[in-house]
Amino acid sequence: MSLPSTIISDWLPGTLLDTDLWMSMCRQAAGLVGTIDIGQGGLWPTLAQFDGSFWMPVRASTAAGGVDDLFYFIFWLSFVFFFGIVGVMVLFVFRYRERPGHQAEETATHSTALEVTWSVVPLVLVIIIFWWGFQGFMEMSVPPSEGREILVTAEKWKFTFTYPNGYVDGDLHVPQGENILLTLNSLDVIHSFYVPAFRLKRDVVPGRYHKAWFNATEVGEYQAYCAEYCGTAHSDMLARVIVHPAGEYDAWLREASDFISTLPPAEAGAKVFSIRGCPACHSVKSESNVGPALDGLFGRTEHLEDGVDILADENYLRESILEPMAKVVGGYEPVMPTFQGRLSEDEVTVLIAYLKSLE
Amino acid sequence: MTELAQKPTIAHDDAGPNYLKAGSGALSWLFTLDHKRIGIMYMIGVSASFFLGGIIALLVRTELLTPGKTFVEADTYNQLFTLHGVIMVFLFIIPSIPAILGNFVLPLMLGAKDVAFPRMNLASFWFWLFGGVLALASMHMGAVDTGWTFYTPYSTTTNTSVTVTTLAAFILGFSSIFTGLNFIVTIHKLRPKWMGWFDMPLFLWSIYATAVIQILATPVLGITLMLLIAERTLGVGIFDPAMGGDPVLYQHFFWFYSHPAVYIMILPAMGIISELISVHSRKTIFGYTLIAYSSIAIAMFGFLVWGHHMFTSGQSGLMNMIFSALTFTVSIPSAIKVFNWLATMYKGEIRLNTPMLFALGFIFLFGIGGLTGLFLGALATDIHLHDTYFVVSHFHYVMEGGTVMAFVAGMFHWWPKMTGRMYSETWGRISALIIVVSFNLTFFPQFVMGSQGMPRRYYNYLEQFTGYHQMSTVGAYLLGLGFLIVAVTLVASLFTGKRAPANPWGGATLEWACASPPPHHNFAKTPDYRAPYDFSALRHDAEDGGYRSVPSEEV
Amino acid sequence: MSGNDQGHPPELAHHFDSMEEQHESSKQGMWLFLATEILLFGGLFCAYAVYRSLHPEVFIYAHQYLDKVLGGINTVVLITSSLTMALAVRAAQLGKRKHLVIFLALTLLGACGFLGIKYVEYSHKWHLGLLPGIHYDPVEDSHATESRAHPDGGEPPQDSSPTVTEAPEHAIELDVGAGLTPARAADQPLPEPEQYTAPTSELTAAPAGPAGLAVEAYGNDAHDLGPEPRLVQLFFSIYFLMTGLHGIHVLAGMAVISWVLVRSAKGHFRPDYYTPVENVGLYWHIVDLIWIFLFPLLYLIH
Question: ipTM of this model?
Answer without folding.
Answer: 0.92
